[in-house]
Amino acid sequence: MRVLVLLAVCVNLQRCRGLPSRLPALSASSPGQPSLSDPLLDYDRLDEELGGGNRTGAVERCGPCEPDLCPETRGCRAGLVPDPCGCCLECGNLEGQACDPGDRSRFYGLCGSGLRCEAERRPAGGAPGPEEEEEEEEEEEWVCVCEEQQPVCGSDGTTYMNMCRFREAAFSKPELVSRERSPCRTVPVIKVPPQNQVNGSGSSLVFLCEVFAFPMALVEWRKEGRDVVLPGDDPHISVQSRGGPLKFELSSWLQIEGAEPGDSGTYRCTAHNSLGSVSASAILGVLGAEELSSYLANSVSEMKQLMEATDYDQDFY
Fold first, then answer.
1. Measured on CA atoms in the order 102, 104, 110, 113, is the torsion positive or negative?
2. Are 92 and 80 in contact (CB under 8 A)?
3. Chain segment 90-143, per-residue pLDDT in tens
4. Could you give the CA distance from residue 38 to residue 219 in angstroms, rounded to a whole number?
5. Which residues are CB-neighbours of 156 under 8 A, at least 6 positions away?
6. Which of 25, 50, 69, 77 could connect to 171 by a Cys-Cys bridge, CB 3.0–4.6 Å?
7. What are 245-266's pLDDT values in tens digits?
8. Dist CA 221 CA 202 (whole Å)
9. Spatial distance between the Cα atoms of 315 and 13, rounded to a whole number of angstroms
10. 117-139 residues labelled b (16+ CB within 10 A) or e (exposed)
């Protein structure tokens, strides 16, 4: 009867992963031990009795190891790691996923091959109180980090930012091999091209162009019809560039302050290095007050027609 009650307590606590191979002897007459009928039963102490506070006890909670009963693992892009009981193998966590520090899986799991679990400091959630405004609290999170951060050039001509990303890709591409431990030398690739815009006179407008290249690319802006690299001598146009957001990328902005109808036209972003060049363009429309009002009205009308023509009652699941 006592064994049945003890198992019920374990189920309620959701702490028993399986039937333990050894149960502690609990008795009302045992000194220092709580009675199962005691309403103030010390669940934490009970958990320690079952082995929750040390690795040896945890193995006892898992019961005898039977490898033949281990589930089959598939699609493990980061390899295999021991499960919480140390009997079976499970998929390792990928780069950026939460993990359990140490060599034992407790809640999040262990990092896969070539990864280590590191603490990451992040601002604590919630708004700070009056006394906490001067000192911002931080909370610690453990995540998987790749041990080899050097970029890899794959045989597919793709640059992988580290060896772990390369291994993930190679999992689904068995023919993929490492060409060299550096970025692939390539003609610039425009990752984020400038977008078409329509706005009113006097507004401030910004075009963005993000480029990946190795060797690093140089980015230039031009307006079609003018053989001048912007900004030229135009005081209300400026160009700024900086590295990022990722490695071997360059972000460039073209900004127009107090736009006028004469600024309307096609703007082109051109990136070039020693291997070649690539470009992308976007159209800018600067309208007067009446033209802008008419344009917005037509846009709203087209949106309503699109919504009416769309069958939102259709079941997509």
1. positive
2. yes
3. 999 999 999 999 988 989 999 999 999 999 876 665 555 555 544 556 678 999
4. 75
5. 173, 176
6. 77
7. 888 899 999 999 999 998 999 9
8. 21
9. 40
10. beeeeeeeeeeeeeeeeeeeeee
